[in-house]
Amino acid sequence: MTLGLGRTLNLLEYLANSQFSYWMSVSMAGFPTLIALHSVGMGAAVGLSMAVTLKLYGALPDLGRYPVQRLLDVATWGFTLNLVTGLMLFIDRGPEYLASGIFLLKMLLVFIGAALTLVVRQRVRALASPSGTLVDDGVARVMSLVATIAWFGAVVTGRLIAYLSDLYR
Amino acid sequence: MSEKLFQWIANSPLADWVVSSPYIWPTLESIHFVSLCVLMGSLLVVDLRLIGVFREPIARTVAFLIRLSLLAFAVNLSTGVLFFFGYTAKYVNNPAFEIKLTLIAIAGLNALYYRWRLPNLVNTREVTRSSIAVGCISLALWSGVIVCGRMITFYAR
Questions:
Q1: Which residue from B26, B41, B150 is facing A39, i.e. has the nearest CB?
Q2: Residue A2: pLDDT band by 50, 70, 90 thresholds?
Q3: Which of A4, A74, A85, B110 has fewest C-beta within 10 Å?
Q4: Which tens digit of pLDDT belongs to each residue from A16-57?
Q5: Which residue has the higher pLDDT, A37 or A13?
Q6: Largest pairwise CA distance in chain B
Q7: Low-confidence stretches of chain B (pLDDT beneath 50)
Q8: Widest CA span of chain A, in angstroms?
Q9: Do residue A60 and residue B146 have CB atoms under 8 angstroms apart?
Q10: Which of residues B51 and A126 earns the better pLDDT score?
Q11: Complete DSSP assignment for chain B
Q12: CB A76 within 8 A of CB A43
């Protein structure tokens, strides 16, 4: 177990000192572009998660099951963009990110948001009524609300990484 | 003229307030980002309907989300003005900031075109070339606004 952790840290050290990491720090196509795309993915994933929660709590009454499914599909694409760019940003300074408490809190919130959104997505697929509307599901509603709160928490903690860690100083 | 205005802004009591505590700027940024997600989510639903990703008539949803996006935009604008007051030098003559403002202005015109030409489209299952164009342009512009917003730091002099 300890050996595994040591190897992982060695790998992260290696990646943080690689040519890729150097390119990330000097090229405008590196860190600046990736962080910008990370924000676009964030807007789509978090914003659409919020829209689905509003729907499940009755604020968007004429939004049927099919549009909600499509919104969750697009939210998943947004999250995929976040994941890919996030991993590339992580590779740049892996050991430093792992030592940052605020980053680890962000990751926990991202995990909660992503896991609950996936469950909501599956429940929405199963909640078809013959008319195409969504069947009222209290569990999906609460999960969606918790997911949206976790996503917004991830947005705030993500922003605070710059202030509560030494990563960008 | 503009030089004097920027100096006045940078020396104003509001500018002093924004930098008076180490907590204010991060708090404003957090609010700006949360509000950005609300704006993006609201507009995405409307744009995806205009593009035809789904065709259901969702007039009440669109009315609600447009009000919500205007509220989110007002919050973003307010926090954005405070950023400008707090660190004027970062924004003046910054190409990323200038492009961001231009994209927001074009997005406003695009929204006005929607109000003028397509207000009743979301009452129907219709998708037109014009609605697809409005939806795609809106998505591209707001994505560009986010990208340019993030680039401001890297183009600051």
A1: B150
A2: low
A3: A4
A4: 888 888 888 888 888 999 999 999 999 999 999 999 999 999
A5: A37
A6: 54
A7: none
A8: 57
A9: no
A10: B51
A11: -HHHHHHHHHTSHHHHHHTSSTTHHHHHHHHHHHHHHHHHHHHHHHHHHHHTS-----HHHHHHHHHHHHHHHHHHHHHHHHHHHHTHHHHTT-HHHHHHHHHHHHHHHHHHHHHHH-TTGGGSS---HHHHHHHHHHHHHHHHHHHHHHHHHHH--
A12: no
Which pLDDT belongs to residue A1? 55
Interface touch B149/A39, C-beta < 8 Å: yes
Residue A78 tokens, joined: 């947004």
AA identity, residue B26: P
Burial of B47 (0-12, 13-18, 19+ CB in 10 A): buried
What value of ipTM does the predicted structure carry?
0.93
Candidates A26, A33, A46, A106, partner chain B, best to mutate (most B CBs within 10 A): A46
Asked whether the predicted pLDDT for residue A120 surpasses 90, the reply is: yes
The answer to whether residues B25 and B18 touch, using CB atoms and an 8 Å cutoff, is: yes
Query: CB of A161 within 8 Å of any CB in chain B?
Result: no
Cα B114 from Cα B134, distance rounded (Å): 7
